[in-house]
Amino acid sequence: MYKSISTAHNYDAQMGKEIFKCFEKNMDIFTDFTVNVGDFQFSCHKFVLSSCSGFFEALLRTDMREKYESSCTIEGISPEIFGLILDVIYKGTDVLDEENMVEMWHASNQLQIEFLVSSCQKFVNENITLQNYWSIYEAAKLLNSFGVLTKVKKLIVNNYPNVVGSDDFMEIPFEEFKDLLKHFRIVGDFVVNSVLKWAYSDDSYLTPEPEKCIGLLRVDIGLHNALCKKMEVETEEHEKMSLRRLYLGQLFSAISLKDISTACLSNLLNNTFVIDNKDAITLVNKQAASRLELTKPAMFKNYRTASATKTPPTPARKVSANNENLLNRVSLYFDIPLKFQYILILLFAAFLFTLLLFSGC
Prior knowledge:
Layout: H1 5-26, E1 33-37, E2 40-44, H2 46-52, H3 54-61, H4 65-69, E3 71-74, H5 79-91, H6 101-110, H7 114-125, H8 133-142, H9 146-158, H10 160-164, H11 174-181, H12 189-199, H13 210-219, H14 221-242, H15 248-254, H16 262-270, H17 272-276, H18 278-309, H19 323-334, H20 338-360
Parallel strand pairs: 1-3
Antiparallel strand pairs: 1-2
Helix pairs in contact: 2-3, 5-6, 6-7, 8-9, 13-14, 15-18, 16-18
């Protein structure tokens, strides 16, 4: 009699647990390989390591020194994380949590443990928050995880005000920030202001009051030297941040300024930082000119509509030396056909001639 699928699945799971119990019971017996991680040594089995890890399989299959010495040293992984990886391999323990998921992801990728890489990636993708989004973004980019990258970018765009207010916002490198800006379909005033915030951070803390330094010098020379050293470090950081100002034009080119308000556009035109950046002010001026061009036809159309329903007052006319310019002005103001304009001008000229003739008499 055949077993059902669910029964067979439960049977396989139970068998797996029993096998892991055997490993756990005898994991310290017949060990034939030592892994050095930091100051710790882990006794393992070549067969188990090579079966689960592509890294160890390649290491033990080739004629390398580690194969004959039955030991190797692992760099870039902490002893705590490697111990958790051994728990997964030998015991099947579920060790992933929000604290270790990024480190476990890196370590399993380094050791080429494919099933653990997939588990870590799935766990990370389900636990992205505003508190850990940037560390996950950096890990996903390093490990070429397109799915996780897409979800992190979506989280940033959907929660952008909270992201701008977080400490990690100012740590975003230029290339990543520029790439994120391209994901905004509609760019509002807040996005533009966030670009200015990123490019021009507050540096008032770099100029302590001289009186405070003098007071510290009188009280404690050591404390004064510590303060000066701190100021040197902060100055170096400030110089790095100042380089961001050069990127303002490129950041503006990554977003569309057509959706910002007129008030925001006016502020950009008068912003000293924007004016000092040639590329940035060029883009802002171009947007301002484009917006003016869009308003001209509407103004002219409204004026023509108003002139058709309401007769404008007769203006005081002056004889112009340029008849073409006079005709253009009359045509624009009165909307009179061209042939009637010539008749009016001839009648007006005849009136002036008659007036001069009678005044001469």
